[in-house]
Amino acid sequence: MTQEVSQGIHVKTQISLLLLVLLFVPQSLRAEGDWEFTPTSELALSRGLEWLAKNQGPQGNWDSNDLGLVSMGVLAFLADGHLPGRGKYGAVVDRALDYVMRNAKPSGLLNIADPQRDMYNHGLATFVLGQAHGMKNDPRMSKVLEQALRLIANTQAKDGGWDYRARRQGYGHDLSLVVMQAKALRSAVDSGLEVRRDVIQLAIRSVRGKYRASNGARSIDDPKIKIGPGQFTYDGHNGTTAMAAAGVVCLQEFGQYDDWRINKNMDILADAVKKLKPPRQGDGRVPFDAYSLYYVGQAMYQVGGDYWKECYPILRDQLVTSQIRKPNSATEDGAWRDPRYVTGGRPSSLFGTSVACFILAIPNRYLPILQEGKIESLKKGL
Which residue, 63, 115, 322, 361, shows the most beta carbons closer than 10 Å to its own? Predict the structure, then answer.
């Protein structure tokens, strides 16, 4: 399971190094080049964060008891270099993190909404807490993270997947659950925590089992599965843009950088991005939908190369165009929304805006999950 993590010198060193990066690395060195950031994208990001700050509730939760969505609000600020308790948005980040941690259940579960969202919210919240761990010397966060990671291991199904509810089953449900836990586990590694290797091994097998070849090959042990096109699917049958991206992200997070399935899915994603229709000015809609965009953007960045260079500007510019501009409305100006998610009885501006800000902030490379370089310790022996 997860191992006890010492706080002392290790955490202080993480914090010191992070502060040096945030405070002293010039923008020109953080991004690959001027093409990643534009004046309009930086302004859109600033407006989005301002919307999140202005619309946060006094408890820190943006009118939502969904710990996953609240954590996404945190991620938006962390991705732009705003540390807990420091600077312009430090109090905003602190309030949201506190909301997540004080609502952790004794079992370690990070969900107080519908039980059917147990492992969605748990995986996402655990991931974000892992990213924040080295930025905030808080023993409470270490305890919450350790319990959360233990729960992920204890609820893994025998086939390496997870159920929607926090319970161990014989078979996991679908890839959308695996990717949430994959990011949580990788985040733990980024923060210096240890996770069981057998949990990662099983999860990798589960991910590969969701790949389907167009020629009908299904088994991961069938040599024919490598022949011709194919893609990751939701449950072994339904191939979507979101799941193509989720499968790539899983393999990247687990250190499987050379897996042959990656490029097959990246070609599908690049084609989907290039076929996006131009958005209407200020309509608030994100490319694809917020859930799909969240994984497509990460897949493009993690694989990099021409995929990133050709597709990121499309996603970035679509977000700039679609951002809501209503200067006289504090509840709308600077936001994006996703009608598939509802908070406070209306389309979720929390989710849409958080994901949009995260995508626009990726070129900062502030988050541990976005640091350059490969973690070979995940790859070895798997």
Answer: 361
* 3-state SS assignment for residue 339: strand
* Residues present in the chain in total: 382
Alpha helical stretches, state H, the chain: 8-24, 27-30, 39-55, 67-79, 90-102, 118-133, 139-154, 175-190, 197-209, 241-253, 261-274, 290-303, 305-322, 349-361, 376-379
pLDDT in tens, 311-351: 999 999 999 999 999 999 999 999 999 877 766 666 689 99
Q: Is the dihedral of CA 5, 10, 16, 21 positive or negative?
A: negative
Provide CB contacts within 8 A for 79, sequence distance 6+.
Answer: 357, 358, 361, 362, 364, 366, 367, 370
- Answer whether CATH 3.90.1010.10 is correct for domain 39-379: no
For strand 338-343 and strand 230-232, is the pairing parallel, antiparallel, or unpaired?
unpaired
**pLDDT per position as a tens digit, 162-201:** 999 999 999 999 999 999 999 999 999 988 888 899 999 9
- Residue 298: what residue type? Q
Tokens of 143: 């305890």
Find the radius of gyration of the CA atoms of the chain. Answer: 20
Per the listing, tokens 């089953």 go with 169
- For 134, 211, 372, 378, the CA distances from 13, given in Å and listed in that order, are 9, 41, 19, 23
Instruction: List the chain domain ranges.
Output: 39-379
